[in-house]
Amino acid sequence: MDLVGIFKDKAIKPKEKTEAIAVALLGGALSVDTLIGFAGESKDAQKATCIEAIELATKQQPAIANDKVFKFVTAALADKAPRVKWESARVIGNTASLFSSQASKAIPNLLANAEHEGTVVRWSAAYALGEIIKLKTALNKDLLPAAEAICEREEKNSIKKIYLGAIKKAQK
Asked: Is pTM beyond 0.85 here?
């Protein structure tokens, strides 16, 4: 798959680019390692589109993600661009069960993003943190009180609901 060509082609709409890349990932025409290499050298908009394609693909097949993907999106949580932050958090949420031993590395940036001014960044952080909480690992010792504290400060009910649902499942 020619990633440079896809991004240069103005006739292809942004969502179509994301879907085409995700289909290529799922079909094996594009490796996640190649996509991450490309995304790592791209500007924010292209990087976010690449991560969004990974998010779309991991929603259907979480196992296409590997250690490099998880490390890449964990690091991308600290990017300045909100879209990069939220797409990365969604990939982590989609793949948390596969990388539970590495989830601790993502938690500090997810907690920082849980306080972000952008609603979508906070929602995505809540989704990822909620999926990690549902794994019922030793991380919950510190993560559950942190999630409860975030709930108290969070103004959006849709975001509170994510945390509360995860906390409830973890306590069963």
From this structure: yes
